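$ ./design --mode recover --in tokens.txt
reading tokens...
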């Protein structure tokens, strides 16, 4: 399977890691392998689409501009504790939303080929202006600021 301008199918496999902590066994999951779907599927891998969306371009830009560009693997947790990779994203907001909902997420450094592909996607569809919405400073002790200037001197005449 070849990738397109907005989709890149990947084979993703995870491995279960058991660690002895004191007398107890702790289980964690890690990425075993991630390969483009043009390669043969590794054993126990899952085919997942990395899909780019136009409305997430701002998040992609922030990710690409970071020193540690990441991909996020969203997983389903089965009743027996097994993690199954279900989604791949380059948007940290998607990963954060999943984590808030107690959905397991693994992150990995973004391969350079995917970063170039994302850069081309952003270039093709246009940059999105990223702006921080900030509250105007209000000095309530001196009764000044936008929330206290409801009536101007001209409005009172």
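writing sequence...
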């Amino acid at each position: 399977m070849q990738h397109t301008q907005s989709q890149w199918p990947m084979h993703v496999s995870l491995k279960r890691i058991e660690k002895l902590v004191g007398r107890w066994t702790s289980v964690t999951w890690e990425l075993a392998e991630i390969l483009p779907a043009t390669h043969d599927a590794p054993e126990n891998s899952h085919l997942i689409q990395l899909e780019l969306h136009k409305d997430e371009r701002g998040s992609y830009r922030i990710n690409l501009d970071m020193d540690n560009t990441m991909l996020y693997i969203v997983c389903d947790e089965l009743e027996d504790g097994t993690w199954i990779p279900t989604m791949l994203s380059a948007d940290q907001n998607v990963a954060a939303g999943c984590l808030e909902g107690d959905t397991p997420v693994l992150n990995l450094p973004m391969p350079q080929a995917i970063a170039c592909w994302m850069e081309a996607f952003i270039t093709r569809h246009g940059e999105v202006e990223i702006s921080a919405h900030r509250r105007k400073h209000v000095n309530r002790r001196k009764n000044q600021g936008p929330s206290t200037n409801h009536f101007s001197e001209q409005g009172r005449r």
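exit 0
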